[in-house]
């Protein structure tokens, strides 16, 4: 095992690099003003980063009020390295290679894959090795591989996977011994939170409400995730909403997830309409065509989801809650319906919005996690928010 990641000799280096990453070009003078570091320190730090091709110079900025020479602008070299993501779930493996920004290099997906503790190492190392051979040459090479798990993760250890038994092996240490770049293992919904936080929001306190076959809220403040004692913080899908309700895989009965997860929505809609196959496109068309049963069904789903969202507001008082998943992607008006149900004065200044990343949030989250750890940047921000995706509650 060898992980020659970027060594930060001084905290000041990561501070300067963070400001360069979140800018759209910045001068040394601006860096000095923002960071409080003197010009000599800025010159030394940027010279080192230039030598390592982590940043580059391009063009000139605006001159001062009194004229004079225009400053040279500095940019983050987003093609200095590559970031990898391997998304593992029951039935599929998805591998994504990216540069150190939003630009994807390639993505591959294997379906009908039965991943178990007995074959997972051989299966994924074969996939990783095959894709490593297709990566472009970069100065830094691979800065990290993040494994997305659809289950619980505690400090890179998989503690629970509801649809497989790969939680029974130490995947992190096995892979870290094999590869000379950093390995990270994280819950898929948590990665989505990193993506939303780092790439789409100026806020330093965000909750990402992720609705798929499970429901989880990723809670992040000042670049730090709230994971709880065993990595299970934010499991809002296991909040009990119905006494003596449907039995849940967690051991409780009546959990939110049993009624409003994507699989639960499909099951209930199929029963309502006597269908053997349901997806969000079908539900969307029934809803948009004004079908009374479907509109009532969605209204009931929204009511239950509103209970979960309201609980998050009361418990954490975040600035922003993003809504992520196919339900919100296909029926974006659901966010307005939830908003109408949040009547508490505590939600007055909350920003509730649909994700602008959707399924890309996990990919962007892996990029953010890999970059954050490689360059030792505690609170990574790209700050490229789409302002039209934000709406304040009134």
From TrEMBL:
The keyword Protease does not apply. Keywords: Carbohydrate metabolism, Xylose metabolism. It comes from the Bacteria. SUPFAM superfamilies: Actin-like ATPase domain, Winged helix' DNA-binding domain. Pfam families: ROK. InterPro entries: ATPase_NBD, ROK, WH-like_DNA-bd_sf, WH_DNA-bd_sf. Belongs to the ROK (NagC/XylR) family. Transcriptional repressor of xylose-utilizing enzymes. PANTHER family: BIFUNCTIONAL UDP-N-ACETYLGLUCOSAMINE 2-EPIMERASE_N-ACETYLMANNOSAMINE KINASE, ROK (REPRESSOR, ORF, KINASE) FAMILY. This is ROK family protein. It comes from Pseudolactococcus carnosus.
